[in-house]
Write a structure and sequence with these properties.
The chain is α+β, with helices and mostly antiparallel strands. The chain contains two helices and two strands, in the order H-H-E-E.
């Protein structure tokens, strides 16, 4: 498992690390103290991934269409 600071990780690396933590915790063979540490890092990774996804969503643009259905421009994404 990577000890890279979460804030320096790409979305993909953070997600991969989170998946590794979930797998280890699901196996149930990790001592309690280590499980707590893994859980805390997993929570931090989850928060980081959610923030990165939210930031990406804010940058997405929707294509506007004119009345005849042809592309007319873009506008900011709205959920």
């Amino acid at each position: 498992m990577s000890e890279t600071p979460v804030t320096e990780m790409s979305f993909e690396d953070a997600l991969r690390s989170l998946e590794e933590i979930v797998t280890r915790l699901e196996r149930g063979d990790v001592p309690l103290d280590q499980s707590i540490t893994l859980y805390e890092r997993g929570a931090e990774l989850k928060k980081h991934c959610e923030a990165r996804l939210n930031a990406a969503q804010m940058r997405v643009e929707a294509i506007r269409l004119s009345e005849d259905g042809t592309p007319k421009g873009t506008e900011p994404f709205s959920a």
